[in-house]
Amino acid sequence: MKEKIKxxxxxxxxxxxxxxxxxxxxxxxxxxVEVINGFIHRGMESLITSKNFMQNLILTExxxxxxxxxxxxxxxxxxxxxxxITVPKRAEALRVIADEVKRVASNLFNVAMLAxxxxxxxxxxxxxxxxxxxxxxxxxxxxxxxxxSANQLTGVKYDLDEKxxxxxxxxxxxxxxxxxxxxxxxxxxxxxRSRTVGVGILPREKALELGVTGPVARGSGINNDARVKxxxxxxxxxxxxxxxxxxxxxxxxxxxxxxxxxxxxxxxKDVITNLPEGTTYVEKKPQVPAGEITVRVEAPxxxxxxxxxxxxxxxxxxxxxKVPTYTNWEALKVMLKDNKVxxxxxxxxxxxxxxxxxxx
Amino acid sequence: xxxxxxNNALKTKLNFYELKEDQDSYGNPIAWIKLKEKKDIETVxxxxxxxHGRCIVATCFQNDDKTHSxxxxxxxxxxxxxxxxxxxxxxxxxITSILPSANWAExxxxxxxxxxxxxxxxxxxxxxxxxxxxxxxxxYIPFSKISVGITESDILWKKVNEGEN
Lengths: 360, 165
Known about the structure:
The complex is a heterodimer of chains A (about 350) and B (about 160). With about 350 residues, chain A is an alpha+beta fold. Chain A is about 50% helix and about 15% strand. Chain A has a single domain, classed as Cytochrome-c3 Hydrogenase, chain B. Chain A has a three-stranded antiparallel β-sheet with strand order 1-2-3, with no helix packed on it. A three-stranded antiparallel β-sheet of chain A has the order 6-7-8. Chain A has a two-stranded antiparallel ribbon with strand order 4-5. In chain A, β7 and β8 form a beta hairpin. Chain A is globular, with a radius of gyration of 20 Å. The mean pLDDT of chain A is about 90. Chain B folds into two domains: about 130 residues, NADH:ubiquinone oxidoreductase Nqo5 subunit (Beta Polymerase, domain 2), CATH 3.30.460; about 25 residues, no CATH class. The chains are: A alpha+beta (about 350), B alpha/beta (about 160).
């Protein structure tokens, strides 16, 4: 006999509101999946067109807290391209530092939630403690634990002096070995492995077909990392090492996130020890002529694309953004099918969903 | 894949289209294609598929003459291909059966702009409730109506007065 199971729209194991209707058989194996969205839809794309370019920087920072640095970063790249502004090298470096610090904290939060969902509470606490170093860093350098407000049109709003550089390097010195230890624990912890290895499979062909990005794609052996495929800021010089796995399961996606975090720390250290001299922004108000542009950045969850269309006025004529979860959601239907109901929330967590971004 | 290869692949299959080369601030190439016939989007989608590409997303906007334009943003191994189709009868040819990655993008266009992607395999709403009319992004809707479902002052005060009584 088939059983209907409903998860959401408000559920302790869901970070944000979404509604799953699952149909399971007698063995509690998921046979059908229906996902209902729209609980956090705010009509932001419409709101954008009623604000000027400066106001929209603030608005893009607030699409969601988890990706609050990537949105203004991509938006600034789009406006600067249309306005013909080249930002100083130091600003590019500072943008990379902010983005990669955010990536470490974001990825660690996701894997900590994975440990929580598999009831590996000690591992969860350890992971959150390591993440806390990055959160403290964000609070000290940028003044906020989530919304860093690092970007501005024509550059960045913050700068690093010797004291702050020392603090970042000292923090990374602590975090770097902890990340490696945590990754080893996630690779070997029997409780965690028993709930994640072979669970939530997304075959490579399906991943290609559905156009997934970020750790979800890389966990299925697909490299579409925007930092490598279309390098921006300093990523062309930094040459990020892309972590690819072919197991295609929840465990592979978690390990990719750890390796992304380890590589992020390497890049922050590289950038900060060779921080270019100079100003942090161009002292010029951007004059945006009529035009259109697409730009991409790599958010912790994957590719973030911005399309901006302007008509020479002070406001965007149209702006559209595509976040990683937008395509990764459809992949959940493949991942959830033929898995046990008890693994449903673990599989959902493995795409690191960001619903506020997706629904806008 | 570069823009020249893309053009060679397309010109054998399409008769009328405009192709413009562009790049971002870091020299990454961007192709802008404008199709004359909206059904040609299927040919472009098949070409993207042949090169193992994907649809990133699609952007719709209303023009001054009330017609609509849709820009599909495709990717082939890092090359962005922005392909524009115009429609004056609120329909487009769905490419979801060719590129499943276009699924959500076309469904969102349907509910926000009331443009029907003909042949789309899914008829369900994506984000908006069925009580909200299709084409909601074509209209101006006050924030108070979105958040509390009331905007006309008569209705608001009627409800307040009812509460007092």
